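Usage

Read records sequentially. Each one opens with the input sequence:
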Amino acid sequence: MNTQMILALAVTFFTLTGCANMSAQDKCTAGGAVIGGVAGSVLSSGSGVGTVGGAAVGGVVGHQVGKDGKCL
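and closes with the structure output:
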């Protein structure tokens, strides 16, 4: 395997195992930030400000939705 493949597998492994101890609300916050970041990037044609803004708004929304311990 080449170096890029090994690096991608390592990042994936550590990302997935890093979420194991997160609370349900933390997972909702992270999921909201990811979805918001992607949406912000799409809506702003890849602008960094749009991506970060979308991630911030998505994280706040995910945090509020996850208060009862359930994500959509």
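Summary fields computed downstream for this record:
- The chain has one domain: 3-67.
- The first helix runs from residue 3 to 18.
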